[in-house]
Write a structure and sequence with these properties.
11 helices, Rossmann fold, single chain, 8-stranded mixed sheet
């Protein structure tokens, strides 16, 4: 049966490739992107609906949630795929460090505002995380805004770790109401990721040779995302868990801490004015 699937970060890379794959399978795919030109080009080629939202502006995330809730009778899956790695510490108009907001706060807010529709639909929420969570992440609730020892890679890794903890707590709080959650690392995907940073990661994504040698095509990685939103837990994946290469994996030690997951959820609700 066709599903209604919302994908953020769908103007290019993994999001666009996943949209093409899922639309080709007959699902109703709804694309969300920052650039109207990019997301429209992908959507028009597929005959899909599309919306724009700049995740550096939380008012646009709230407006997006209201539009999606009003327009779609059910939402079977939400793929929180949008993400970014910045070159320096910058605060958004909302007063949050930008990497934190784009990669974690905005997806949390969007999901939270859609919880009624998602639980009614017994939906699946998928977070595109990263092994950067294990390599560079560290959640410090006393430094929620990434003001101490900031580096672009640490901020990014921490945000991806926060997504894993968010997935865990989302499962804990709502699985008994039919909501399913999972997080995964898609691997290095050929895209324009990291173009706005001076991190060495930029040279991997920007070098044609290294892209071919190290990174996988987006349409290959798209099959991972598609599996989560079209199949049930137990068919090769586990609800509430973090996955790499199609298997449940350990991430950062903090990712397995249920107390931290609950505290992070509560702190995030507080800073977003959701409590």
């Amino acid at each position: 049966m066709p599903k209604t699937i919302i994908i953020t970060g769908a103007g290019s890379g993994l999001g666009a490739a996943s949209a093409r794959l899922l639309a080709g399978q007959g699902h109703e795919v709804v694309l969300v992107g920052r650039s109207a030109g990019n997301v429209r080009a992908v959507a028009d080629g597929l005959g899909c609906a599309w919306h724009t939202a700049d995740f550096t502006r939380l008012d646009e995330v709230r407006a997006l949630a209201a539009t999606l809730d009003a327009r779609y009778p059910r939402i079977d899956a939400l793929a929180n795929n949008a993400g970014a790695l910045r070159r320096e510490r910058t605060e958004t108009v909302d007063g949050f460090e930008e990497t934190l907001q784009v990669n974690y706060l905005a997806p949390f807010l969007l999901t939270h505002l859609l919880l009624g529709k998602l639980t009614e639909s017994r939906a699946t929420v998928v977070q595109t995380s990263s092994n950067a969570a294990k390599l560079n992440g560290r959640v410090d609730l006393d430094d929620f805004g990434n003001t101490v020892r900031y580096t672009p890679t640490r901020a990014y890794g921490t945000a991806k770790l926060q997504l894993i903890l968010f997935t865990r707590e989302l499962h804990t709080r709502f699985h008994d109401r039919g909501l399913t959650a999972a997080a995964f690392h898609p691997g290095g995907v050929r895209s324009n990721f990291a173009q706005d940073t001076t991190s060495p990661v930029r040279y991997v994504f920007g070098s044609p040779l290294l892209r071919r040698l190290i990174l996988r095509p987006a349409d290959v990685a798209a099959h991972q995302l598609a599996r989560f939103v079209t199949t049930e837990p137990g068919s090769g994946w586990e609800a509430g868990a973090y996955h790499e290469n199609g298997k449940v994996r350990r991430s950062h030690a903090q990712a397995a801490d249920p107390v931290l997951a609950a505290r992070l959820w509560e702190r995030t609700e507080e800073v977003l004015g959701l409590r």
